[in-house]
């Protein structure tokens, strides 16, 4: 199933029912008083969170939603029935924007969160409402008002504590799989990850959610590759893991490899660039012990004093347990 993280939908709340003009017509009461009832309110349209959804795929085809109109009032002071409400279910992390006004209506981040996005029309009044001491037979009623109509952008931004980023084939998916219960597609060619994957990591009573997004390449923030499409899914993260294939770096290119990712982050969003990042040098299982010692020395010299970094093998689970523990410690102390 294709991962869909944005959709434009049209929502029309129900119109209010009209009031009624009516007079009592009973035996022996030929000229009874007014008994026209009110109309019913139009149905509302709500957005409600659904923990069982992880994509906006449902709205690729169905894009228009109508709530029911309120029924008109009738005689005997009978009020019209209220129109039925419509509930649109979305995954956690969905941001709702009004396209016409370019304003954020709501950000769905809680279980069972419900937000009114289009209010139904108000009911019209029947003529019995207008009876007075000076007007015993009013022939006045009001019509129900129209329900709200809006064009809505649904934009899914995944909720995760930790985000992985790096060049294609750096081992992000393997690390996500090693740390969590997620099962992302893992292969030995670039862009095997085509959409974000979430996994949950539990250590005793504490846990965190990790997001794996497709690899980022040079020029991603300008629309090259897949990364730019999914970078937004890291914006809610509290920590980013910058995965680097240790076998591809040497004394001369380590800063260049780091800079590619950092530049794309900064170009995409300044706030994303400011999220704390740890450097994860992956695939040390491929190196000899001699090579590991050598590469560790010059990487250590190049790393800034306040930059946290790890040497791991996600494939062989070398260093991953300690990484998980440190992530838990970082998240639960901040």
Automatic annotation (TrEMBL):
Annotated positions binding GTP: 166-173, 191-195, 212-215, 282-285, 313-315
Family in the record: Belongs to the TRAFAC class OBG-HflX-like GTPase superfamily. OBG GTPase family.
Reported cofactor(s): Mg(2+)
Binding site for Mg(2+): 173, 193
Function: An essential GTPase which binds GTP, GDP and possibly (p)ppGpp with moderate affinity, with high nucleotide exchange rates and a fairly low GTP hydrolysis rate. Plays a role in control of the cell cycle, stress response, ribosome biogenesis and in those bacteria that undergo differentiation, in morphogenesis control.
GO cellular component: cytoplasm
Domain OBG-type G intervals: 160-332
Compartments, record wording: Cytoplasm
Record Gene3D superfamilies: GTP1/OBG domain, P-loop containing nucleotide triphosphate hydrolases
Complexes and interactors: Monomer.
Enzyme Commission number(s) from the entry: 3.6.5.-
Any Pfam family the entry gives: MMR_HSR1
Ranges of residues in domain Obg: 1-159
GO MF entry, a single one: GTP binding
Coiled coil: none
GO biological process, one term: ribosome biogenesis
Name of the protein in question: GTPase Obg
Keywords linked to the UniProt accession: Cytoplasm, GTP-binding, Hydrolase, Magnesium, Metal-binding, Nucleotide-binding
